[in-house]
Write a structure and sequence with these properties.
alpha/beta; FAD/NAD(P)-binding domain; Enolase-like, domain 1; 3 domains; 13 helices; 22 strands; globular
Length: 469
């Protein structure tokens, strides 16, 4: 029995970082166990994050298209209605297919799944406690922490898992809220606001920062705000929420406005979307003296090693953007480094995407970052209003902008707001990864008519030779 619990590598967490790392480690010949506290694999992303939210975004967008936009294509539709139960069931079906797919991949690659809450218990030891209270101890030559993150909270706002909740609850409301109050206008807040605004809810967003998407490009953020307001969302910036109190089926939110005056607003649902924090509570980091920073992130070196021997950490539990694809790449790099030359992640080439309509995507540096760093740059942009494919789609809001070094022409950053921006940014990420120049993109042949031509035209614009505007 002891030998069955001995592994070359034990991974705690089966999210996009943990499960990808487990599969890659198994491919490299390691005997791997992956510990997961939930009954399904995939972590927050697949179960209550990336995947279900995109399913709801897609369904709600199609609802609006059928109701408001198909007529302009000559498609007559009458009596468009919403069946929220079917929409939610479709979301759950997609989640089930993908989480089940990970289980099949584990079986295929001979990764041992251990269900329960894992914690460190000294060098080379992981104790797993099941939901029934039983426990077992795993011996590991190496340990990888990939426990992800949990929703952050704010003082004065107590979650009740119903009227006052996080994105988990917002993905499963049994009815469309009459008035949804969203605390936080970041990625999660904007995506969930988009879903319920499309389905008929009045949506008010309270954001502590003075502007929308402060880490995004200023031009992108300004246009995004106008478009979201056009979709019916209301924004209060500089709002510091003090409390959220449930009164029957309503919730009263009190906040200090940008001018410092106290204000209240009442709705039937409150979504707290003020970010996420690393999920390290109860992990037993102290048993190995693993160091963390002031925000609770585990400190690692360039190869994802912690301060404890034979323990690595990746994804949301370490500093950096909390992105599923970042965690996956770090997982691969970490396990490759365990058995051979360390893998590598180019952080400048990690794209960020907001899956609203229009989509927003960026990779590399923004103009503000380049200005603050004193880096000389030139830029080129191209509007989707001048793109044939965008016109055919009926989605002409937005633009592509490329920032290149003023002296070398190397691409430093790309911003995109518009149709399929999340897909278009992949080309830009590859360009940044390969240290491509704007000229490289400009000379690459792009099929016509495609949205990707906007990327080429933006690259041409860097050199002042854009064709179609």
């Amino acid at each position: 029995m002891e030998s069955e619990n001995n592994f070359d590598l034990v991974i705690i967490g089966s999210g996009p970082g943990g499960y990808v790392a487990a599969i890659r480690a198994a491919q490299l010949g390691l005997r791997v166990a992956c510990v997961e506290k939930d009954k399904t694999l995939g972590g927050t992303c697949l179960n209550v994050g990336c995947i279900p939210s995109k399913a709801m975004l897609e369904s709600s967008e199609r609802f609006v298209d059928a109701r408001d936009h198909l007529a302009e294509h000559g498609v007559k539709v009458e009596g468009v209605g919403l069946d929220l139960g079917v929409m939610l069931a479709r979301k759950e079906k997609i989640v089930g297919q993908l989480t089940g797919g990970i289980a099949m991949l584990f079986k295929k690659n001979k990764v041992t799944r251990v269900e329960g809450l894992g914690r460190l218990a000294g060098p080379g030891k992981v104790v797993v406690t099941g939901s029934d209270g039983s426990s077992c101890e795993l011996s590991a030559g190496k340990i990888l922490i990939a426990t992800g993150s949990v929703p952050a909270t704010i003082p004065g706002v107590e979650l009740d898992g119903d009227r006052i909740g996080t994105s988990t609850e917002a993905l499963a409301y049994s009815a469309v809220p009459e008035h949804l109050i969203v605390i936080g206008a970041g990625v999660i807040g904007l995506e969930m606001s988009s879903v319920w605004a499309r389905l008929g809810a009045k949506v008010t967003l309270l954001e502590f920062m003075p502007k929308l998407l402060p880490t995004m490009d200023d031009e992108v953020a300004r246009l995004a705000l106008r478009l979201f307001q056009r979709q019916g969302m209301t924004f209060n910036f500089g709002a510091r929420v003090k409390s959220a109190v449930r009164e029957g089926d309503l919730v009263k939110v009190t906040y200090a406005s940008a001018s410092g005056e106290e204000a209240t607003i009442t709705g039937d649902r409150v979504l707290v979307a003020v970010g996420r924090r690393p999920a390290t509570q109860g992990l037993g980091l102290d048993t190995l003296g693993i160091e963390t920073d002031r925000r609770g992130h585990i400190i690692v070196d360039e190869h994802y090693k912690t301060s404890a021997a034979n323990v690595w950490a990746i994804g949301d539990v370490i500093p950096g953007p909390m992105l599923a694809h970042k965690a996956s790449e770090e997982g691969i790099a970490a396990v490759e480094g365990m058995v051979g030359p360390p893998g590598h992640v180019c952080y400048d080439a990690i794209p960020s995407i907001v899956y609203t309509n229009p989509e927003i995507a960026m990779v590399g540096k923004s103009e503000l970052e380049l200005k603050n760093a004193g880096i000389p740059y030139k830029k080129g942009s191209f509007p989707f209003a001048a793109n044939g494919r965008a016109k055919a789609l009926g989605q002409t809001d937005g633009f592509v902008k490329i920032l290149a070094h003023a002296e070398t022409d190397r691409i430093l950053g790309v911003q995109c707001i518009g149709p399929r921006a999340g897909d278009l940014i992949a080309e830009a990420a590859i360009a940044v990864e390969f240290s491509a120049s704007a000229e490289d993109l400009a000379r690459s042949v792009h099929a016509h008519p495609t949205l990707a031509e906007a990327v080429k035209e933006a690259a041409l614009a860097v050199a002042g030779r854009v064709i179609h505007i």
